[in-house]
Every structure is written in C-alpha cells, then in structure tokens.
Amino acid sequence: MSAETAVTTRTKPPVRRVAMHVLLIALAVGMLYPLLWMLVSSLRDNEDIFTSAGLAITDATLDNYARGWDAQQNSFATYFRNSFIVTGSVILGNLIACSLTAFAFARMRFRLKALFMGIMLVTIMLPEHVTIVPQYILFSELGWLNTFLPLTVPKFFATDPFFIFLMVQFMRGIPRDIDEAASIDGCGPFQIYWRIMLPLVVPALATTAIFSFIWTWNDFFRPLVFLTDNDLFTVPLAIRLFVDLGGTDWGALFAMSVLSLVPIFIFFVFGQRYLIRGIATTGLK
Amino acid sequence: MSSLTEERRRMPAPALRQPSPPHSHRRRALAPYLFLSPWLIGLLVFVMGPMAASLYLSMTDYNFLQDPNFIGVDNFVRMFTSDPRYLSSVVVTATYVLVSVPLQLVFALALAMLLDRAIAGIAIYRAVFYLPSLIGTSVAVAVLWRTVFGSDGLVNAALGAIGIDTTHSWVGNPDTALMTIIALNVWTFGSPMIIFLAGLRQIPRSYYEAAEVDGAGHVRRFLSITIPLLTPIVFFNFILQTIYAFQAFVPAYIVSNGQGGPADSTLFYTLYLYQQGFANFDMGYASAMAWVLLVVIAAITGINFLLSRYWVFYADGDR
User: Mean pLDDT throughout B203-232?
Assistant: First the structure.
C-alpha cells in the first residue's frame, strides 16, 4: 500500500494535488455551509437571521434555545424523552430479534432455508407504505394508537430485515471451526449463539445499533401516522409544529433543529467506523 | 447476490456429522425454527398479513369507520381516469426518481474516484461528504432546506454575490419547488459514494499499471478498466437509490406543509397516499395506491435485473 502511494505521489505533480484539495475543500464547505449557517443563525437574534448569509456572530445569544425549548405545548424535554424511549426500544428489539434470525440463516440447516432467505431479502425492498394502512387498522384494533407500541413492538419481531442481512453477512465471515468445536464440546445452539457468536459479531451489533438509532431518531412518517397526542410526540413531530403554525420564530426553530441533530452527530463521530463498514457491506442508506 | 454462496454452504457432507441420540436430533431440527420464530411471526403479522389485507382493501371503499364495501377495481380505474392529482403525483415522483438518482450517482462516483487517489485527509473528506446522508431525511434538514431556498435564503444570497439579484422563492414557485427537493437528494450522495469507494478499492492496481505500460491514458483506463469492473456496484447503487427515491416523503411534506404545493408540484406519491389514507381516511384508495407503488417498484427492479445482463460485468463470471 505504501509503495503504491509513493508511486502515485511521485507521478502526480504537486500543482494538481493542490488543485484537487482546493476543489474538495470548496465542495465540502459548500455542502456543510447550510448546516453551519443554521447553527450560527440559532445563536442570532431573530431580526438578524435573514439579513446575513455570512457566518460571523457579533453577539451570540442563547435566547432562541430558551424560547424554543418551551415554545410548544410541552417542553422539548418531553419530546426528547419520547424520542429516546422509542429509539432505545427499537435498538434493543433490532439487536435481539435480528441477531437470532441471522444466526439461524448463517449457521443452521433447515428446510425452506433458501425460500425464507429469499423472502427476507425481498422484504428489504418493501416500501413501508404498502403495509401502513392495514397496520394502522391492526394497531387501532389493539388499542395501540397514541402509544409507542406501533413504533417499537414490530422491531422485536425482526421487521427491519436490513439488519438481518447485515448480520448474516458478518456471521458468515466467522470461521465455522469455532462453533463446530463448541458443538462437539456439547454446547447447544443457543449457547453457541449467545456465548460464541454474539461476542464475535460485536462490530455488526454496533453498526445495527447506530443505524437503528439514526433511522428511528429521524423517522417522521410512522410517528406522524400513529401519534396524534402531543404528550407523546417525538422530536421531529415537535419541530414540524413550528412550521405548521405558519410561525416566523426562525431562531427558535433553528435552535431546536440544531438540538435535534446533536445526538446524530454524536453517534456519527463515535460510530463512523461502524457506519462506513455497514454501508460498504450492505448498501444501507 | 448472496444466495449462491448460500446454496453452496447448504450442502456440507452429512456423513461427517457426529451421530447424536434421537431426542437431541429432534431438538436440533426444531432449534432453527425457534431462532426464526420472532422473524416468522413478524413476517406474518406485520408484513404478509397487512399486505394481504391491503390487497383486499384496495378493492373496497373503506373509510375506517364503516365496514369495507367491495367495489372491485373501481379504485384503480379512478386513479387513472378521474383523479388528476393522482396522475400529477405520478409525474412528480417519476421526475424526481429519473433526475435525482442519476445525478446523485454521478456525484457519488466522481467524488469516490477523486478520493480513491490515496490523498491526504481522505478520512475527513469521506466523513464530511457522508454526513448529509445521515441527516438528509430529518425534519430539521427539510426545514433548513425550505429556508435556504426561500426568497431571502442562502441560495439567493449566493446568487446576489455573483451579481444575480433575485427574490425568487425556489420552494414557493411551482416551476422550481421540485428542483429543490431533487437538490436535497443529490446532496446525500455520500452513502453511494462510500459503496463506490469500497468497489474501487477492489480493483487490482496491477490492471492500471499494466494498462499504463501499454500506453493507455487516463480516459482510456477509466473507460476500459474502472467502468467495466465497477458496473456491479453501479447496478447495486442504482437499484437501491431508485427504491429509496420512490419512497421519499419528509422533504415534500415539510417543504409544502403536507399539502404537496405549490400547485401540486411537490405532491410526491407517498405524500398523496398519506393524504388519502390518513387525512381523508379513504383507506381503500390509499391501499390501491400502495399496491400500484409496490408493483411499479417490483417491475422496475425486475426489469433492471433483466437488463443488467447486458451491461453489468462480473469479472469472475459468477452471476
């Protein structure tokens, strides 16, 4: 690798390398600019927001955050709590259910395996809109509308087949000798799954947890359909309220938008390794 | 793609297995289904059952309060003959998919190729370009987009800086509103870019070196080595991003306050489906729309797989 790098570097004139960096930096700044502008605007007085497209802050204020936090019917503490409850449950459900399913696909022999595997792969491509109406009817019959259950319970039944696929791919990379040795030593399948396989696929579990977090945190469609009680709103639903009211309190809106992105940034910074490996192996969003 | 290896692994020599007592044998036969049971139950209760129900409802008039009333194919006839909003949602979504997916993939490939040249700081660039993919479907970014493309937003400020003064509201004008949502999708080129990068890394450097020795220039190497060897990845990205694009919902909802305006120019298919199902509670019609969407996505994916044999190149001859 280093020898190849040396070759590339030698054959490439420095001017072109500099030009390439200039181009990449310009593009990177251009892409991030709107986000930086939102951050800066959230620290400005409302009347200054649209008068400046620059990023300079003369007198930063946290007023927008204070005002935005209590601008809706409930405090954002409630909306954040709701979002954390839902995402936490979804992560737990996906980790348990998808790893059990993946273990069966990756390591066990049974009839209909090819068929089930095919069905699992096809359901990855299934748009959620196809099932949303009957699910709404089902959850209404169960009395689950305006609870978190429609958002969380299905995840405990491996309804995010992306993660099954991710874990199957990962488990196939684990040498079979390890669990065959354990099997000869008298370990049952569940012990092999729990004591041997799970510790070995921690990176795949981490990828699943991080993607589950980000997708659920961002999810708007399902909460919009299943939750109408403001006390149960997740953060995206609450942010939408700023817009719906035709409001012009952009400072408060931006402040809460910035806050809503903070958990994602944290996961992004600490989980980048897993995220990148995750998409490179499965093509997740 | 993985089913082939799957087939191969399904046939280990049974003779090598340890003989086991009969009762444990039966347990072993049941064990896989125990592991699968959450998924199987989920599949039946939350996927297959609802799909079947949705198919039935698509042939009914159902408003959620009264029992469904069977009306045959009336919903489907209504879609294509007497619902201009439905047809415009089809046009909007088709435009969005056809324009934004190729643009997004061109950006993704171009940036992946730039980053593949072992340059300093690749990890930082990769992270920066990838970040929008993670937040592109969030309400926060959709809200931001709405202001960036508003009449006093960043886009007009940037245009003003290069001497084009305008107060055109890009999101408020039917001619340009859809374009802003397309731009949002192109902005999230990071995740296909990372898949392209992984694919580029798989191409042996020796191919390029040999071609260079033979006198092939940059363009020739790109056309004769990179592109053919990358076609499976292009195909994969194309299928996935097309499927995702058909399901876009959040930006359209936020940019237009859930209405699909101005003048239905951002009335995405999924948004109209939501309006019919959950604002008008015309659930039979919404179900019919959902099934048409499913059939269209399946057909497009199927056609792409059929066409892929004419342009996707598998180096090892493995299909």
Answer: 89
Among chain A residues, CA nearest to B189? A285
Q: pLDDT tens-digit profile of A125-162?
A: 898 988 999 999 999 999 999 999 999 999 999 999 98
Query: Quick check: B266 and B178 in contact, CB under 8 A?
Result: yes
Report d(CA A56, CA B219) in Å as an integer: 43
Domains of chain A: 2-68 (no CATH), 74-282 (1.10.3720.10)
Question: Which of A134-143, A248-257, B151-160, B222-231 is the most confident on average?
Answer: A134-143
Question: Computed from CA positions of residues A72, A76, A82, A86, in that sequence, does the dihedral angle turn out positive or negative?
Answer: positive
Q: What residues of chain A, 111 to 140, have a C-beta less than 8 Å from chain B?
A: 113-114, 116-121, 123, 125-138, 140
Nearest-Cα distance to chain A for B198, in Å, is 6
How many angstroms separate the CA atoms of B289 and B302, rounded? 20
Looking at the complex, does the CB of residue A240 fall below 8 Å from at least one CB of chain B?
yes
DSSP B196: H
| Shortest alpha-carbon distance between residue A53 and chain B (Å) | 6
Beta strands in chain B (DSSP E): 60-61, 69-70
Asked whether the beta carbons of A182 and B211 are under 8 A apart, the reply is no
CB < 8 Å to A130, chain B: 50-51, 54, 290-291, 293-294
Measure the CA angle with vertex A248, ends A244 and A252; round to 5°: 90
**Contact assessment for residue A174 and residue A197, using Cβ atoms and an 8 Å cutoff:** yes
Nearest chain A residue to B275 by CA distance is A225
Nearest to A90 by CA among A147, A167, A156: A156
Average pLDDT for residues A54-63, to the nearest whole number? 82
Residues of A in contact with B236 (CB under 8 A): 283
d(CA B240, CA A162): 12
Query: Could A240 and B139 be called an inter-chain contact, meaning their C-beta atoms sit closer than 8 Å?
Result: yes
Paired tokens of B232: 């499976």
A264 CA to chain B: closest CA distance, Å? Answer: 8
Cα(A34)–Cα(A25) distance, integer angstroms: 15
Cβ contact A114–B240 (<8 Å): no
Q: Does A90 touch chain B (CB under 8 A)?
A: no
**Buried b vs exposed e over B159-198: b needs ≥16 C-beta within 10 Å?**
eeeeeeeeeebbbbbeebbbbbbbbbbbbbbbbbbbbbbb
Token digits for B148?
Answer: 């960036």
> A110 and B29 in contact by Cβ < 8 A?
yes
DSSP letter (8 states) at residue B137: T
Cβ–Cβ below 8 Å for B140 and A257: yes
Residue A245 half-sphere exposure toward CB, CA atoms < 13 A:
13
Backbone angles phi, psi at B61, to 5 degrees: -105, 115
The full set of domains in chain B, from first to last, is 74-311 (1.10.3720.10)
3-class secondary structure, B269: helix
- Classify residue A234 by burial, with Cβ atoms within 10 Å: 0-12, 13-18, 19+: buried
Per-residue pLDDT tens digits for B63-108:
998 999 999 999 999 999 999 999 999 999 999 999 999 999 999 9
Note whether B112 and B196 are within 8 A (CB): yes
